[in-house]
Amino acid sequence: MKTKDIMFLLILFATSSYIQAGVYKHVDEKGNVSYSNVRSQNSKAVDLPSITVVPAIQTEEVNSIIERRKESSNNKKQRNDIEKLISDEKGRLSDLKIEYKDGSPDRLGSERNYQRYLDRVERLEGEIAARENNLNNLQQNLQGLPNPNN
Q1: What is the distance, to the nearest Å, from the Cα of residue 50 to the centroid of all Cα atoms in its chain?
Q2: What's the CA gap between 124 and 17, in Å, rounded?
Q3: Cα–Cα distances in Å, from 44 out to 14, 30, 35, 116, 135?
Q4: Which residue intervals of 20-149 are DSSP H helices?
Q5: What would the pLDDT profile of 103-138 be if each residue is shown by its tens digit?
Q6: What is the reported pLDDT for 10?
Q7: CB-CB contact of 93 with 100 (8 Å)
Q8: Per-residue pLDDT tens over the stretch 83-112
């Protein structure tokens, strides 16, 4: 064997133990625990479990899944927001209809002038029509959203 071959083998054996260095646990006199990849006095080798390698997922597939989840989350949020608005609008419409009493609301003390009463009746009719229109538009928007169960 040549000298170069012998030197190569010596270097190979010397570095192989260094390359296979593990993890060492050291407890000092105060009880502090430290871990290192370098062996020191009073340190013990730690037997670590083997590493599980999971193959990578195709990036396009992951991006597609993320986009679908974001879209689904946005649709659910929009649906919840619209359902809350519909509920609020139904409550306001119900209050107005109770006050309106099918076109003959009670006269208020401030409506001694009959025209004020008629103006309030007209205002209530307009508000009821506007609330019903809002309610119909909200329900159409809700129907236009994708079904969250699909």
Answers
A1: 34
A2: 90
A3: 21, 17, 10, 94, 73
A4: 59-100, 114-144
A5: 899 998 888 899 999 999 999 999 999 999 999 999
A6: 61
A7: no
A8: 999 999 999 999 999 999 998 999 988 888
User: What pLDDT, on the 0 to 100 scale, is given for residue 149?
Assistant: 65
Max Cα-Cα span within the chain? 123
d(C-alpha 101, C-alpha 6), whole Å: 108
- Could you say which DSSP state residue 103 is in? G
DSSP assignment letter at 38: S
Of the candidates 129, 103, 131, the one whose C-alpha atom is nearest the C-alpha of residue 117 is 103
CA angle 97, 86, 105 (to 5 degrees): 10
Mean pLDDT value across residues 60-75 = 88
Tokens matching residue 135: 């309610």
- In the numeric block, which tokens belong to residue 92? 């306001």
Residues in Cβ contact with 51 at an 8 Å cutoff, skipping those fewer than 6 apart = none
**What size, in residues, is the chain?**
150
Q: Which amino acid is at 31?
A: G
Backbone angles phi, psi at 43, to 5 degrees: -95, 150
